[in-house]
Design goal:
Distance between the termini of chain A: 55 Å
Mean pLDDT of chain B: 84
Low-confidence stretches of chain A: none
Helix content of chain B: 25-40%
Strand content of chain A: under 5%
Structural class of chain A: mainly alpha
Oligomer: heterodimer
Largest interface: A-B, 84 and 79 residues
Chain lengths: 472, 421
């Protein structure tokens, strides 16, 4: 019975969200993947919003009223998307698919099996133990637990404020390690417990594993739309989902970084697809998800601002690349100034140690497998080719993310946390899967050329066999 | 008619395709040659990882080591010369006495020629991350003097201690001890002490063992995903990257077109990536086995009880059973961020006050009669049993504060008091 109660919020998020965002994608079997991936995430967000609205309206932080609000929001989104995206019907939504036969087909089967096994393993581990990582029970789980157990959106304040308020009034206030953090992640945790009445912080892990799975499904769908070749789409999805630091955040659930990264990557893929196909549905998905980024973590505001190149693409009607170069130069110059000023004034000695730590984190330890080696190498390999608008805009967005991280990590008091390796990889997490998607767009032309030549060679062999009368 | 038309179309198709076939074949040959050159080094490295993992799992590495000694744990040794010790099924549990700050477990009988085995690993698990750990020894030529060397440890894992350049690790060693300093009640679990000869073979075996040792979730920051031991000399990721670079250099000599180069690089990277990922998956499997063993599959209360903070949970739960008023205030006092954070978490949704970050304690003027105080490991606060007063340094000025309190419960160094006045 309890297992069913815990599955209810997951199913509601998946079904409600999928049906709501279905209208943003075309109808057809292939686009179901995108709808499922994006739908689950949107369904989870709407569930959390439902809890917040229910609590704020005085119905309490309770599952039933929140579920009613979630369903209403899903219906509203479906209606809005259906009416506003009619113009998308005549627009191409995907490239023509390239059939994957022989080795390609086996590759697809093996990768899909590996991904399914991976999700199963991560799901088991994520739900096997109570909230384990530090911040999960220091600043996210604290709020979720209080709101779940009291059924009210209780206020969190600093320890000193707690003393003042608690001594002078009878207001029930709480304190934790980060009382000012936004409410969306704790509310997603509360939503994950559905209609149950016992605080069970191991069950919350299921949502984190499902978010990773949703990212995988959405990425496979978006990549197949863009490249039209299953081995490449699934291979790149495997690459993104096998990043150890990302998987660790799913196995040890409870931090806000995984949800933030999933939302960022989903928005990034939707925005890139919008440039490619110019379908309003993709733009709508990107805008919807970006609007919620700041409610996951405060840096979400800066991550949303990195989408400036996509906005420029939408409003600027002249050659884009010089403008993008200008924005990038400005961002890196600004970041450099902030870093230099901070380092000179505050901690010049930290610079050497933090560079050493950066190298170890990105290139020596297992955090990212080989991602950053591959990224640097492929960028060097493809530096001279003429990049499409899609590549230029997406690449500039990621580069702005790098500039933002540089300024935030080396230009503020966070520089010490790079040295002791407690922040760097978490801060980089949103860029990880998005970089995998971008690198796939970068190499797709070459891979598809080889795949097509293999396909044409196979076709030639078949034709020759038919002419010779040896065809089966 | 129909078959004649079909045959003509096929021939036309064949001619069209044949015109491109020589170019295609040439590209194909180039592709095969390039990929073959590139694949070899990374495949070798990945195979080494796989064989190393199997060797570690099967215990082959241990049996291959030359010159090895172990100070084991049994009913004869070690003996707690300072503090308290007890032999359990998991090992020897050494505890700092209630009025002390150090504990020592001693082996008075050691293998002969121990000084020839300078690579020492204390197979020990300290409970607290800031416990100071040392290995002590005595020599026959200077029996009145005790020599010592610090053992580094992180996240409950001790690092290899290399005494090959320590001038005191020489002669006839007649006794060895493991000493640790910490809070009263601190414990360390000792499985034994391993000593090995300093040979290239042993160093290599240790390094391979470091790559292939899988471990449970041990409190390592979620910002890091390190597989195997932290103190390895060569990083497996770096090794795979170097192998890929060698392959790519070999490929470059063939000067393939960019599409072929890209495909070859993708293939090579995929092999390296899959090899590294297999390690990650095996590590996750090992972690899951350890998690399932530690927490079981019972209800959440059972899992909390079996967790590393089970003592804190049980005391907090008894407090919540006794005080159901939602406005009950409770203050958590403790030096250790983990202990005070876990205590605060388990006490929710009571109105808990604690400073998660700095651990600063409030002034006594903010605490009322009827409030509760949960005291976990602390040097800032102490309970004076005679006067029944809790005394601590707190408030903005860090002055000495005191309150009349009544103890309500105690579990392994964690105490709950009710404030009387």
């Amino acid at each position: 019975m309890r297992a069913i109660e815990l599955l209810v919020p997951q199913l509601l998020a998946l079904v409600g969200g999928t049906l709501a965002v279905r209208f943003a994608f075309t109808f057809g079997r292939r686009s179901w993947l995108c709808a499922l991936g994006y739908g689950y995430v949107v369904g989870q967000i709407f569930g959390a919003v439902g809890l917040y609205v229910s609590g704020a309206l005085g119905f309490g932080v309770r599952f039933v009223p929140a579920a009613a609000i979630q369903v209403a929001l899903c219906v509203l989104l479906a209606v809005v998307l259906r009416h506003s995206l009619r113009g998308d019907r005549g627009v191409a939504h995907a490239v023509p698919p390239l059939k994957s036969g022989g080795v390609g087909r086996w590759l697809v089967i093996v990768i899909a099996a590996v991904l399914v096994l991976r999700f199963a393993g991560l799901g088991l581990e994520a739900t096997a133990q109570p909230l384990y990582p530090w911040d999960a029970w220091q600043q996210w789980g604290t709020k979720a637990r209080v709101w779940f157990e009291t059924g009210e959106l209780k206020r969190f304040v600093s320890p000193d404020e707690w003393l003042q308020i608690s001594s002078s009034t009878h207001d029930a206030v709480y304190t934790d390690a980060n009382p000012d953090y936004p409410p969306l992640v704790p509310l997603i945790q509360v939503w994950s417990l559905g209609p149950t009445h016992t605080w069970d912080d191991s069950a919350i892990g299921l949502t984190w594993a499902m978010l990773l799975a949703a990212l995988g499904v959405a990425m496979a769908g978006q990549l197949f739309r863009t490249v039209g070749y299953w081995p490449l789409a699934l291979g790149a999805t495997y690459m993104a989902l096998s990043l150890p630091i990302l998987d660790t955040h799913a196995a040890l659930a409870g931090y806000g970084d995984l949800p933030l990264s999933v939302i960022f990557c989903l928005a990034f893929m939707a925005a890139a697809s919008w440039i490619r196909f110019r379908r309003k549905g993709d733009a709508a998905m990107a805008i919807l998800l970006l609007a919620f980024l700041p409610f996951f973590k405060r840096p979400g505001i800066a991550w949303a601002l990195t989408f400036l190149p996509f906005l420029m693409f939408a409003v600027v009607h002249r050659p884009l690349r010089p403008l993008l170069r200008g924005v990038l130069a400005l961002a890196f110059a600004g970041a450099a100034v902030i870093i230099v000023v901070h380092m000179v004034r505050a901690h010049p000695a930290d610079l050497g140690d933090s560079v050493e730590s950066l190298t170890a984190n990105l290139f020596t330890w297992e955090n990212w497998h080989l991602l950053w080696y591959v990224a640097i190498f492929l960028l060097l390999l493809h530096r001279r080719r003429r990049w499409s608008n899609e590549l230029s805009t997406a690449g500039t967005t990621l580069a702005l993310g790098v500039a933002f991280l540089g300024a935030a990590l080396w230009g503020t008091g966070l520089s010490a946390s790079i040295v002791d390796a407690t922040t760097l990889n978490r801060a980089l997490l949103p860029l990880g899967p998005a970089t995998c998607f971008f690198l796939t767009l970068l190499v797709q032309r070459d891979i598809l050329r080889v795949a097509r030549s293999t396909a044409s060679r196979n076709a030639w062999r078949k034709t020759r066999a038919r002419v010779n009368g040896t065809a089966p | 008619m129909s078959s004649w038309t079909t045959g003509r179309t096929d021939r036309a198709q064949l001619m069209a395709v044949l015109s491109n076939s020589s170019k295609e074949e040439s590209r194909s040959r180039s592709l095969r040659r390039g990929v073959a050159f590139a694949i070899l080094p990374v495949t070798v490295v990945v195979l080494i990882f796989l064989v190393a993992g199997i060797a570690q799992e099967m215990g082959w590495l241990d049996s291959r080591m030359d010159g090895r000694g172990r100070l084991g744990v049994d009913s004869d040794a070690p003996v707690a010369s300072v503090g308290r010790g007890a032999l359990g099924k998991d090992g020897y549990l050494l505890e700092v006495a209630a009025n002390g700050n150090i504990a020592v477990a001693t082996w008075t009988k050691v293998p002969t020629g121990l000084a020839n085995l300078p690579l020492i690993r204390c197979d020990c698990v300290p409970r607290r991350p800031d416990a100071k750990l040392n290995v002590l020894w005595r020599r026959a030529d200077r029996p009145d003097k005790t020599f010592s060397a610090p053992i580094e440890h992180e996240l409950g894992e001790t690092q290899l201690l290399d005494l090959s350049r320590n001038p005191d690790w020489t002669g006839e060693i007649i006794g060895v001890a493991v000493a640790f300093a910490g809070y009263p009640g601190d414990v360390i679990l000792i499985h034994g002490v391993d000593a090995q000869e300093d040979t290239v073979g042993n160093r290599l075996a240790i390094e391979i063992g470091n790559w292939a040792s899988f471990r449970k979730w041990d409190g390592q920051s979620i910002n890091l995903a390190i597989i195997g031991a932290r103190d390895r000399i060569i990083s497996p990721v770096l090794l795979v990257a170097v192998a890929i670079a060698l392959g790519v250099l070999a490929l470059w000599r063939a000067r393939p077109p960019r599409s072929v180069a890209t495909l070859a690089i993708v293939t090579v990277v995929t092999i390296g990536w899959a090899g590294l990922d297999a390690r990650w998956q095996l590590d996750l499997l090992a972690k899951h086995r350890a998690t399932a063993e530690e927490f079981g599959s019972g209800p959440i209360e059972e899992r909390w009880r079996r967790g590393p903070d089970g003592d804190i949970y049980m005391l907090a739960e008894s407090v919540k059973r006794g005080f159901r008023d939602p406005n009950q205030r409770i203050f958590v006092f403790g030096d250790d961020p983990y202990s005070r954070g876990r205590a605060a978490y388990h006490l929710l949704p009571l109105l808990v006050h604690y400073d998660a970050v700095s651990g600063a304690l409030p002034g006594a003027q903010f605490i009322r009669p009827g409030d509760l105080i949960f005291l976990t490991w602390s040097r800032q606060a102490r309970y004076d049993e005679k006067s029944q007063r809790l005394i601590w340094s707190g408030g903005a000025s860090r002055e000495t504060q005191a309150l009349h309190v009544k103890p309500l419960g105690y579990v392994h160094g964690n105490v709950v008091f009710r404030v009387i006045a």
